[in-house]
């Protein structure tokens, strides 16, 4: 019978695969690293909790996430922050919002296609039992 630690390791393997796949996609390059405060000085005044793909990967390796829901809370921050910080109608804002929406879709597709409902619930049960 699969031990709880095996389930959590499977979760980490699955999440790591998602993030590593996103990291090689060129259109998501600007989401690969934290927004550079030198480049974008007022970023921290607007965005409460910055997030990026390399930070997600570090979190996974540090066993930060024990459920899909916890991972998605951080993963969704990447595109939500981009939409929030870049709301204007100018071409640059539109371009980054388009990539943010593409990132949102890719993450949802990975989760929907990659996991059965039972695995998602199993992780939640393990978390509740701790
Ligand atoms: C992300 C983000 N959220 O708000 C904004 C604005 C961006 C964003 C930030 C940057 N420049 S950066 O130095 O912070 C960086 C470069 C490469 C990888 C990660 C960050 C460039 C662009 C761009 O569209 O080219 C967009």
């Amino acid at each position: 019978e699969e031990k709880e630690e095996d389930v959590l390791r499977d979760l980490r393997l699955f999440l790591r695969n998602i993030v590593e796949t996103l990291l090689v996609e060129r259109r998501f390059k600007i989401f690969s690293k934290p927004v550079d405060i030198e480049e974008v000085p007022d970023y921290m005044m607007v965005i409460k909790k910055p997030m990026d793909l390399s930070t997600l990967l570090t979190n996974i390796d540090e066993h930060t996430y024990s459920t899909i829901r916890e991972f998605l809370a951080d993963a969704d921050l990447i595109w939500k922050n981009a939409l929030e910080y870049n709301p204007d109608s100018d071409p640059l804002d539109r371009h980054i919002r388009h990539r943010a929406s593409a990132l949102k879709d890719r993450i949802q597709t990975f989760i929907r296609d990659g996991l059965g409902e039972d695995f998602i619930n199993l992780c939640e049960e393990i978390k509740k039992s701790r």
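DSSP finds six helices and no strands in the chain. The radius of gyration is 16 Å.
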